# Entry
Amino acid sequence: MDITVNILLTIATAATPLLIAAIGELVVERSGVLNLGVEGMMIMGAVGGFGAGYLTGSPWIGLLAAVIVGALFSLLFAVMTLSLATNQVATGLSLTLLGLGLSGMMGTSFVGQPGERLPNLYIPVLTDIPVIGRLIFGQDPVFYISIALTAAVMWFLFKTRTGLTLRSIGDSHSSAHALGIKVIRYRYLSVIFGGACAGLAGGHLSLVYTPQWVENMSAGRGWIALALVVFASWRPWRVLAGAYIFGAVWIGQLHAQAFGIPVPSQFLSSLPYLATIVVLVLISRNKRLTMMNTPASLGQPFVPDR
Amino acid sequence: MRIELVKRPQRSALFSVLSPFIAFALTIIAGAIMFALLGVNPLNAFEIYFVEPISQVWQLHELAIKAAPLILIAVGLSVCYRANIWNIGAEGQFIFGAIFGSIIPVLFPGFEGPLVLPLMLLFGMVGGALYASIPALLKTRFGTNEILTSLMLVYVAQLFLDWTVRGPWRDPQSHGFPQTIQFGDSAVLPELMPDAGRANWGFVFALVAAVLAWLMMGRMLKGFEVRVMGSSPRAGRFAGFGFNRMVFFAFLLSGALAGLAGISEVSGAIGQLQPVISPGYGFTAIIVAFLGRLNPLGIVAAGLVLALTYLGGEAVQSALGISDKVARVFQGMLLFFVLGCDTLIHYRIRLIGMALTKPNDAAKLEAAPKLEEAR
# Structure
């Protein structure tokens, strides 16, 4: 029983950064912007979070720094694609390349240093309940943030007027503009929200998941988060499900390696990436589902005319 | 303050030439700020970064070695991007080209002679093209997003190479080092001028590929097809160009060139397979393609510039003790500024202050009384 609980806990820890980054990107894409820089913002959040935590000794300040760094880094993308109307695919890629380089440079002095870890929640009595106690009341704080964030985004997008406006911008920026909606302003805020989420996800990696700084420690999670949004056909609750499936794949292959299954470890390590491809194929085969849910002006630059 | 874009009636010829240079100048300025923040005199750092690595003949050869894979890959990618097809997995195709091309020297080291090298290069191209055909197939058959699949396959390729050189292909005499046997003499790409430096035929391949691609894009129907499909797939359909054919063409071409770059790098500069054979050439080539304005000849120049950023990164690491990741930062900044400056080709940029009335309205208000007077 204890083993099952432990495995479930590690799956939640592996799924949390994917969930947070994907939820952020979902809002960005719902507003019609495709930001391929998730991996770059995530790794910047990871190095910023680790650095601030290491220098101040407080993992909470680290987590806050991760969010701020991610948001600031996404601002770069926002200025380029929204104010200068550059190609979103290419700009997102360059954000990732720049983030990987910049984080490597900033993190040189952090390599091998012991980091700060955010403590898990502990509520006397409640956390001590067998089995469900640790699952519900004993996880790391970011886990609770991720669940709350998903619920909040779900409510915001589908139950509020502003959310409806945001979705309408993603479906037709010209019509929204004609109605007098500030398309660019909405998109700026969405991109920055996505950046803050990616930064938080990175902070989770370097402050909870493995409390240390390793170069390229995001290991493609930003890209998997992007795939999750497509897989979820832009629905928050499906992102939640997808993130936990991927968390399970990630943990499953680690356990398989530890058990010494007679398959080369490299093949097991490549499973999350292969699973991403398989899942993308399965979802894109259903043309109607994809067509119906893809924000119609996703990835198209918008220059307001007067 | 607000930025406002005003569409130009036609694309500006002036800025389409100037924009890479403006971007380079901005990168230098940002780089100077970065060096100053790191506590290094920027002028001193720039001399070490951009001048010293190319001040001697043998160093120019090193530049050519680094530029060759970048140009080869970027030429293929430029065709993809012109067709609006986003292959960002060239790094994986590079690796698979290297693995396929190494089949002969690793598994049949006894096979020697003048046939070995051409066969290896051919195998390399086939390997890269085959690996690139996976995202192409998934896109044409199922409509799967090629950006994500081609990128995911990079991670898979890196892990596969790692397994190959640690597992079945490891040199039994390597004392546990993860590497294959050294390639035999007839499997090594010859150097161009062995007396002057290490540059090998890979650089010639790159130049030939660039010229051929330039001819194709500018002088042949296929190039026209690529451009039409990229700018207006609908118009392309009316002209009878097939979308699926174009996806395969772009992926196979770019995959084959990346594969050729991979086997050239392994058989020329390295001489055996190792767990890591590329310092991110496949990703840097994306920057090369954009800096070269997606024009094969521009890419040659851009490839040399980006190759210099690699050499400069190594130079400042050894001379000033700054991480060689600084090269990555320079490359990323360069791409950012290039993309930003490209806006100038299609738009005029106006900065608008926080005035209550927009400039246009103000002009109208001023004009109104004058109209009254005129009456």
Notes: Residues 67 and 305 of chain B are 8 Å apart (CA to CA).
